[in-house]
Write a structure and sequence with these properties.
- The complex is a heterodimer of chains A (417) and B (107).
- Chain A is globular.
- In chain A, helix 1 runs parallel beside helix 9.
- By secondary structure, chain A is α/β, with parallel strands linked by helices.
- Chain A contains twelve helices and 27 strands.
- Chain B is of the alpha+beta class.
- Chain B contains three helices and five strands; from the N terminus they run E-E-H-E-H-H-E-E.
- A five-stranded mixed sheet of chain B has the order 2-1-5-3-4.
- The chains are: A alpha/beta (417), B alpha+beta (107).
Amino acid sequence: MPPGVVIIGTGQAGFQAAASLRTEGYQETITLIGEESHIPYQRPPLSKGFPLGTQDVDAIELRPRAFYRDHRIELITSAKAVAIERAEKQVKLASGARLPYRTLVLAVGARNRKLLVRGAELDGVLYLRSLEEAVVVRDRLKDAREIVVIGGGFIGLEIAAAAATLGKSVTVLEALPRLMSRVVAPAISEFFCNLHTSHGVKVVCGCAVSEIAGSGGKVQGVSLKDGTTSPADLVIVGVGVVPNVELAQGAGLRVANGVAVGENLRTEDENVFAIGDCAEHPCIFAGSRVRLESVQNAADQGQFVAAAIVGRLAAYNALPWFWTDQFEIKLQMAGISHGHDRTAIRGSTKDKKLSVFYFKGNQLLAIDSINRPLDHIVGRRVIAGRVPLTPEQAADESVDLKKLELAFRQQSGSSIH
Amino acid sequence: MPKVIYVSSAGDAREVEVPSGTTIMAAAVKNGIDEIVAECGGVCMCSTCHVFVDQAFFDKLPRANDTEEAVLEIAAEERQPTSRLSCQIKVTDELSGIVVRLPSRQR
């Protein structure tokens, strides 16, 4: 059989590319290959329902094993690609085997950024990205009493919330002056700081970890540069990820903050695409090249690449959106707030219902919503459709966003989804 | 075990037996009902598990919360009075035989 599409990476992006190729009517072979031993699964629950025990492995599989057989997707797990031989259009595996391709999709994801301090290798210092790591975190949380989470970003805060819900004593250490500061406004950071504190989590921002202390090879605590130590029998590190660019780099493809692709998600090799967490792509909503780590980005790019391979679509332009669940609160985010110079707030922290609108001049860039789901959903259309909205209107509850968006759509005759 | 009947937009019906407590979305994913995409995994962030519930069963369901109501606004196939997100409907013995029609597209 002539070679078809080879997809490297069995995460959400790789899975979606394979599944969507069949939906698009692609008839040639599809090979989905990755290093992980498990069949494709959802990553978001690993820091939410999975450690709590409300979702098990079976519940987080993206599709059952039979799906791949039924859709003629050859799924190869526990297999590492070590080189792309572009001249021969084949992928070399660690086993020495070669997989020929007509089109190659790199959906190789990212890996945890490692903490580079003394004691980071101690037993009880854990990371969380893969299912294997999540099983270890879940199992070790059972007997742990004092947990220190290093990193006050989404993953760190989600696992902190889960650990606190399980009744553990939890401390979150964040290097920057506030939580999730790279992506959300101070009002949102403050809201979540109060949320965690109200559930008994100790939040320390603006601190620097000097070393992880241990005895007999086991972790005992985390020491800060100010001389204080937080005792811990488990340390969970969530300090970001680095994209897996080595395969592309080794094949002479351009790499920046990720594998560099154009608006069609192709690398400079017309037969090689890159999608998901590993891909740096031009984003019309950010006004720059970005690399996004999210389910929306993985799924939309997976679907797009399938449409691009069959020749149906030429430019990726999906609006980015994100969410995080911490305790009883869901934060919904639409758009990319980076580069904003002004914010407007609708609702209030006191009522636990608020949306922050991020503007650059009079251009709405993004909306973060807590317990205001319609702001988020309508906001997606407002941002994607470039519906005119001033900061004053955004802050004014009497301005009905849904009506405003609908009126604009009818007026301009566009249909935006 | 309770049964769920999925009817495609072309009118083909598929009956699936579902352990009580499973969502209509999860049962679809496990049983090869490809019209249910379930992109966000069941957290009310996407609308890709949208279904139209038969009126008799729709009336038996707990009402949709604000988050689900909002998300239904962006369903790829426009919402109707009996639209629901199937990730929010848990199958119970009382709901056995529930009929859900699937939209022609989810994205």
